[in-house]
Amino acid sequence: MKIKTVITSPYLHYMNLLQWIAYTGTFVFALTGAFKARTFKMDIFGGIVLAFVTAYGGGTLRDLLIGIRPVNWVNDNIALALVFSGTVFTFLLKENVNRFKRSIFYTDAIGIGLFTAAGIEVSLHNGLNEIYALVMGVITATFGGLIADIFCNAVPSLLKRGELYATACAIGGAVYLLLKKIPLEYNTNLFICVLVVVGIRIYSKRKRLTLPEI
Questions:
Q1: Which alpha helices (H) appear in the chain, and where do they start and end?
Q2: Averaged confidence pLDDT in the chain
Q3: How far, in Å, are 127, 146, 186, 195, 207 from residue 160 at the CA level?
Q4: CA 175, CA 131: separation in Å to the nearest integer?
Q5: Is the pLDDT of residue 211 over 50?
Q6: CA dihedral angle for residue 117, residue 83, residue 146, residue 131, rounded to 10 degrees
Q7: Torsion sign, CA atoms 193, 198, 203, 208
Q8: pLDDT confidence of 118, banded at 50, 70, 90?
Q9: Domain residue spans in the chain?
Q10: How far apart are CA 76 and CA 110, in angstroms?
């Protein structure tokens, strides 16, 4: 008997909106990683590596910790195309780079909000309780950038004293989990999660809010 094996991304178990969210966030983070490579004067290969690590480092670490096999990007041609296209786009963008990088701050804020919710959903689907699902949501959203900074031999932005980053994801993820307990339409819950994360990121950036020193 011939057995047909279908390999899909974990994100494809959920609503179409979350699928688009995951891929949109992937492209945004690929751009962020490619811009980081340009900052450190890497070649296009280095740009591809940093773009991929930034986009998929957090999700890969989450899948390894949970025990998902294969990890989310394996056999996902769309993921690979998004990483390459983000790198090529950055390579071709020669003018108004600083202006575009400022816009990346806002799209990155949206991306971490989307990835936080996506990471929580994947974790809950694989049997984690809400506390650990929240932790995995934060890891999904933030650890790709942390790994990319390590590759650049730089102090990870996640660990620098400055704007609230992982904290914004944690608060937004907690709100997302709380709203799942009430009869609220799924897309509305997701939108509120992203709105909370983006709001905290922008407000902390403008007001220079920081956590207390240890």
A1: 16-39, 44-66, 77-92, 97-125, 130-151, 166-179, 186-207
A2: 83
A3: 33, 11, 34, 24, 16
A4: 12
A5: yes
A6: 20
A7: positive
A8: confident
A9: 10-154
A10: 23
Residue with tokens 């991306």: 111
140 to 62, 79, 146, 181, 183: CA distances (angstroms): 6, 15, 11, 22, 26
- The tokens for 44 are 């296009």
Mean pLDDT value of segment 114-136: 91
99-104: average pLDDT? 69
In angstroms, the CA 75 to CA 199 distance is 35
The pTM assigned to this predicted structure is 0.83
Which residue matches tokens 């689907």? 125
Q: Are 147 and 118 in contact (CB under 8 A)?
A: no
